[in-house]
Amino acid sequence: MTTQVVTRFAPSPTGFLHIGGARTALFNWLYARGRGGKFLLRIEDTDRARSTPEATQAILDGMAWLGLDHDGEVISQYERGDRHREVALQMLASGTAYKCFSTQEEIQAFRDTARSEGRSTLFQSPWRDADPATHPDAPYVIRLKAPRDGSTVIHDEVQGDVTIRNDQLDDMVLLRSDGSPVYMLAVAVDDHDMGVTHVIRGDDHLNNAARQMLVYQAMGWPLPIYAHIPLIHGPDGKKLSKRHGALGVDEYQKMGYPAAGMRNYLARLGWSHGDDEFFTDAQAREWFSLDGIGKSPARFDFKKLENLCGQHIAATDDAALLHELQGFLASTGHAPLSDEKNTLMQKGMYCLKERAKTFPELLEKAEFILTDRPIEPDEKAAKNLDDVSRGILGELTPQLQNARWTRDDLEACAMTFAETHEMKFGKLAGPLRAALAGRSATPSVFDMMLVLGQEETIARLTDAACESG
């Protein structure tokens, strides 16, 4: 019987959901969902000074926007402190950990001497093998008894076998003198208790794996499978930072990138499936595997992100796209679309979503729907509404009133009008755009007419024709 795959995402709630964290969450989600497994969420909130409920909420909001649903309750690492202490005491009882009474001053003196003698400054506690009868009545920490010789090998699905000499691993503290557990212990215990089978995380945690493995081995627990993924770099090859642009997932939502495009782009950031660039969620779940993850850092590329987002906007079902557009408006503090505008947007989505890479671009194209009479043309469009153009619109409008409201009939009516007046259609298109949208860059004038309907189209053209130049 094969074991069910269990992955986890374990962010620290000290701020927004970082784009690198979002990709880690996505990789864990894809791996579990593609294998009928579980994807768990643990908030590593042991640093009480820096952990905030607002940051936890920001992480949950970011994951909800990305569509990364998790199984079961959100687990708080802090609330599991008693269990972490229990494991440290079990290790103490079994002899795989010990009480260390060395003071900070003694540890520093050891390191200073070692440095001056050219030896390793890793602290070697004199209490490691001390007889408990010699223990003083003084504060102590509990340390893990790390092996002193040989090596620890991390079998990593991405990095390959990584060997760390044991003389480079110290007897790490498990419980501080105030009885509080350290992060390394908490992570190992939580991963074991949650039944995590695959630890997929950034390669900045690679050294942590060696130390966390020692806890597993001391407790006789089976090790999880490790996969340490390279970090994300900016276009310049340096670690992604604020100077490269947005770091928080919430900022990408506010910039108007669709979640499906973001998922697609983040999946491709460090993982590949042949030459496939654009793919659906179903394909990503089916294709995603650890052997497709590269060893080199991935470079964030806004052009690629925008290109993929444009393809996803074009491919998304109209109603779903409209629903996400409303979410974008809410995230940026804008009022939701009225029922009337919503209906028109759905009607017009076919001509809005082609070539729009973000929701602001889509809304820009939808200006003819979102604006209300009287239409105020912008400076560029106003140049197309001189007295001659208004006269032309005045002549065309009655003919449109008698046209059947189909694309073919509207095009035939406009073309016939242009030929009769010995003008190119382009000469007619400028004034029509200005009258219908107040803009010079819009969808096709015939698309706008069809979406707005006959009554509203005629009303806008009449308004424009009647205004004095």
UniProtKB/TrEMBL annotation:
It is found in: Cytoplasm. Residues 4-306 form the Glutamyl/glutaminyl-tRNA synthetase class Ib catalytic domain. Its main location: cytoplasm. It catalyses: tRNA(Glu) + L-glutamate + ATP = L-glutamyl-tRNA(Glu) + AMP + diphosphate. GO terms for biological process: glutamyl-tRNA aminoacylation. A motif ('HIGH' region) lies at residues 11-21. CDD domains: GluRS_core. InterPro entries: aa-tRNA-synth_I_cd-bd, aa-tRNA-synth_I_codon-bd_sub2, aa-tRNA-synth_I_CS, aa_tRNA-synth_I_cd-bd_sf, Glu-tRNA-ligase_bac/mito, Glu/Gln-tRNA-synth, Glu/Gln-tRNA-synth_Ib_cat-dom, GluQ/Sye. Its EC number is 6.1.1.17. A motif ('KMSKS' region) lies at residues 239-243. It comes from the Bacteria. It is an enzyme of class 6 (ligase). HAMAP family: Glu_tRNA_synth_type1. Catalyzes the attachment of glutamate to tRNA(Glu) in a two-step reaction: glutamate is first activated by ATP to form Glu-AMP and then transferred to the acceptor end of tRNA(Glu). NCBIfam families: gltX_bact. Monomer. This is Glutamate--tRNA ligase. It comes from Roseovarius bejariae. The gene is gltX.
